[in-house]
Specification:
homodimer; alpha/beta; inorganic pyrophosphatase (n-terminal core); Diaminopimelate Epimerase, Chain A, domain 1; six-stranded mixed sheet; five-stranded parallel sheet; 11 helices; 11 strands; elongated
Chain lengths: 311, 311
């Protein structure tokens, strides 16, 4: 499929429902809202599937486009949604068209347009929207800016390329309120989140001369901070911020005898190999595992396993 | 002056010394290193003035270009340096050419090339370097990326425009190691900094239904965190990160009866007007003042002054 094929398919059909993924983030909601908005501007009926987790994300972005009760769609388009297990709660398919950037896309949809080298799905939807509407109006630029900026952590993550930055430049030129959106997306935290970060950074554990850093996150800490799931976004990256940390882990208590571990490395240690020892796995620089141990026991075992690899 | 004039001036002269500003940041050092490097590539003798504060900043960026002992320059170029009081320690001028982006530039140099709408001086030096060298090699792209990314907080600050993002895109295309540089510049903090942030976020004071948030930073906190001046970069912005904060201040202890205040607002409260009441001032959204009071007394007085403006 080409972008032109995607746009043809959108022009041929009507009564669209746009599907975002479970645990929605800025890329899926921004891409979905932009696509929905562009279809409406092009004279189509189009709504977002009412992902029950929208309120945990950016309700101001999704709410204006959520399908009304009783809406009967005829064509489903999934955005930023890699595989069926990522369907939002209550949705079971089928999906007519999928627009995505995940290399792991399982081609569950009848047709799939995939650009696996793109940092965000928003960059792809931007091309669709431009061809569909002939131009980028400010509201579309705002929605797409959320998508592109979120998936790159405001252009700081390693997935950011020249193309990503050029797409963002074009969105700013089209009127995207990048200052306002950046404040909301990247420069605002809940009190609970800031308290949780305080507890994490004041209780880090150092091993191997400071090259290995662990954060233990207990249920007691979450309670004291008043933190819920949505305050824990990307906490796995926090201990890796310490100067000198080559390997870092967040050890999150499930209960007294169970914990979940997120391991991040700078590539010197293979995170996948370490996590495999405990029945987990993932990528070389980011992996995870579960242990039927207390957090303290898990920390000791994990530090030993990393020491073996370092030596 | 045009960029072509700037390049002509550089081609006409030799034995350059590049001047960076006091309390150097990534923009002045990155711009200076890139200009120096480009002049050397163009067959000129060129070095950075040995700003004694380089070691507090990014020594890996400045060290390769610092002038050797006894170097006798014939042409001084200042980068990102707005006025004479920003001269680095030990330097007293004169400056032959200044390349800058500060609207407040005082035109202290014999010739000045100023683009006050640019987010970073790096964006201007990039144009000079491209014309001087005919292309952007990877090492130049890395140096300029530091300049552009630092002055925009990795493209998150309100000064970021489409032009800034396009410049960054071009630098990435030219081979800038944005992932590695972003990790160093934006995703690494000293232990002392993280401890200090922990103390700040766990002791915030809320007023006016949470719309006003203060952080008190005492000398005792700095000692406990092991923090020095360089660990305090941009702490004035920290309390403003809390959800719902419209006005925020950092009240920094000087001694038991003296403190310095940095006030930030979202524009609802005029920070300049509030600080003027205490003999200070600045901008509408960011101002400062000193008080001959303890931090506790200052917090109470400042909260009252803000309350008057809110009502």
């Amino acid at each position: 499929m080409t972008i032109t094929d995607v746009v043809s398919r959108l022009r041929e059909h009507d009564d669209f429902i746009i599907i975002t993924h479970i645990r929605p983030d800025g890329d899926t909601v921004g891409s979905g809202a932009a696509l929905c908005n562009a279809l409406q501007k092009a004279g189509k009926r189009a709504y977002l599937y009412d992902n029950p987790q929208f309120p945990d994300c950016y309700p101001w972005l999704s709410d204006p486009f959520v399908a009304p009760q009783g809406y009967e769609p005829k064509f489903a388009v999934a955005v930023d949604l890699a595989e069926e297990k990522m369907f939002p709660k209550g949705f079971s398919g089928p999906v007519d068209l999928c627009i995505d950037h995940h290399p792991s896309n399982s081609h569950y949809a009848i047709e799939t347009y995939l650009e696996p080298d793109k940092a965000s799905c928003g960059e792809i939807v931007m091309k669709v929207v431009k061809e569909l509407c002939g131009k980028l109006e400010k509201d579309l630029a705002d929605q797409l800016y959320v998508a592109v900026a979120t998936d790159t952590g405001c252009f700081v993550y390693g997935n950011t390329t020249g193309d990503t930055l050029r797409a963002a430049a074009e969105l700013c030129d089209a009127g995207a309120s990048n200052t306002v959106l950046n404040k909301i997306l990247f420069r605002t935290s809940s009190k609970a989140r800031l308290l949780l970060e305080s507890m994490i950074f004041s209780s880090l554990r150092y091993y191997h001369g400071g090259k290995t850093v662990f954060a233990i996150v207990t249920n007691d800490m979450l309670t004291k901070a008043g933190a819920t799931e949505k305050d824990c976004n990307d906490i796995a990256s926090l201990p890796g911020r310490v100067e000198g940390a080559a390997t870092s882990a967040v050890i999150k208590e499930v209960d007294a005898n169970h914990c979940k571990i997120s391991l991040r490395t700078n590539g010197m240690v293979n995170a996948n190999a370490v996590c495999k020892k405990f029945g987990g796995g993932g990528h070389a620089m980011a992996s995870g595992c579960s242990m039927d141990k207390s957090c303290e026991e898990a920390a000791a075992m994990l530090a030993d396993a990393i020491a073996e690899v370092i030596e």
